[in-house]
Structure formats: C-alpha cells, structure tokens
Amino acid sequence: MSNRPAGHVARSTRRPDNRPHPETPRGAPRRTPARTFLRTADGVPVDAVYEPGPNRHDPSDLVFVVAHGFTGDADRPHVRRIAAAFARHGAVVTFSFRGHGASGGRSTVGDREVLDLAAAVAWARGFGHARVATVGFSMGGSVVLRHAALYAGDEEAGTDAVVSVSSPARWYYRGTAPMRRLHWLVMRPTGRLVGRYGLRTRIHHRDWDPVPLSPVEAVPRIAPTPLLVVHGDRDGYFPLDHPRMLAEAAGDHGELWLEPGMGHAENASDEALLHRIGDWAVAAAG
Questions:
Q1: pLDDT by residue (tens digit) across 103-142?
Q2: How many domains does the chain contain in total?
Q3: Dmax of the chain from CA atoms?
Q4: Could you tell me the CATH number of the domain that includes residue 16?
C-alpha cells in the first residue's frame, strides 16, 4: 500500500489507446440514471450509481461524488438520503468503497480507497460535467482530503471543490470509546468477523505499509482547490481538535464550520446542513 496512487484510475472505462470503452458514458445518452461496476487502478470492482441533477441539459453543471463512511455503502438509507439532498443542487454519484456492499476487495480503512474515489470521479466527469465536488463523511472525509492532494491538477480524476465532514485529522486515534471499538473491529480477527457478517464490511487483515499520508498532512497540498471542513461539536468519535487541526493546516484556502449540537457523519447531518453544503459546493466549484 502506497501513499501515491499509480496507474490509470479507472481502467475499465478506457482502452489503452485512450479511446472510450463502450460502457463509458462518453458517446452514450447523457444525463440518464446509470449503475455499473468501475475498475480501479489496482483492479478492484467498485459498485457506482449515477443520478442526473435538475440541470441535466447544462454541460457545465456540478456533479457531487459522495464518499460514505466506514461500514456504509451506496444502498444504505443514510447514503441515499445524502444523495437525495445533493440532487437538488446537481447530479450525484454514489459508490461503495472496496470491501463494502457489492464492491469487491477488502477495506483498507482509508488507504487504497483513494483509488475507488478517483475511479468514481473519472466516471462522473465522463457524463459531461465540467465541475466535480467530492463530499466525504468520516472515513470518506479523510479519503476526499487525500484524494484532492494526490490528484491535484488531474483533469480527469481531480476535483474542483472538497467537503470533508466528521473526518479525523490524524491516524491511529483511540481517544474515544467509539474509536477504541473501531480499532478492535479492524485489528482483531474476531472484530473482522463481526465486520464481515454483522456489518457487511470485509476488512483487510494487513497493516498499512507504508502508512499513508495523513489527512492533516494532505490538506496543505489541496490549495488552491476550495476546501470546506464540517464537524459537529458533539461528535463522539473525533473531538474538536481534529477539525481545528485541519482548518489550521488549510490556511486561507479552507473554511471551517463547527456545527452546534451535531454528532458524527451522515446520520448527524440534517437536511438544512446538507443544503448549505450543496449551496457552498455550487458556489465554490464555479
């Protein structure tokens, strides 16, 4: 596992001569709902869903690519609720990270998942959208930060605006009871069995080698892409020093929203917050 992604990000969508495969959105009727399995740069099939937004005939409109949290997937009710809210502001791509839902592979809990997001972004751009905003929650929040840093300047797999909700700032944090339980789930064989059969999440048994770029290390590399960090002041997983570290690392190109009374990630994100995020993304990605 490497800090730097290698190879093409969505090998199933292009031939070696760079012409589209038949299944790519280019050349097909644009802005119609679609579901397919993408192929990441390291060969993992990723289940992805495209839903056109309210401006399906405008080639410059925005597409949101939503990166769910650990143990989520594209069909979970809380992910569908997020997608429905953002669909009022633009088109939406949801997908299941590796090891989650119908996708293949096993979860690396935020490392190789940047390849899954890169494949989803490239697929989203294939529908003709000029602007992409990546929005991640919890584990997905850390992934959108690393993805934006590693793919900065990439016209196919890069992003035009980044929203990170309830993300950790640093790895291996065990300062709260929910995070200690999560580490047991990931690090112990019994925990991984619970993840597989109880939470529909298949977790890789190997440790990171090397340790990937941390979210707080990734943030300075995102500039000048607009960045929004959103965090609840009642988050039971990551206390407020995490978003404050991210905001400090972002400097002038980042914005921090500390939400009163909000808990953690998707389930704590109410409709009003989601629509404020949607409005911010439309303005920032422009």
A1: 999 999 999 999 999 999 999 999 989 899 999 999 999 9
A2: 1
A3: 52
A4: 3.40.50.1820
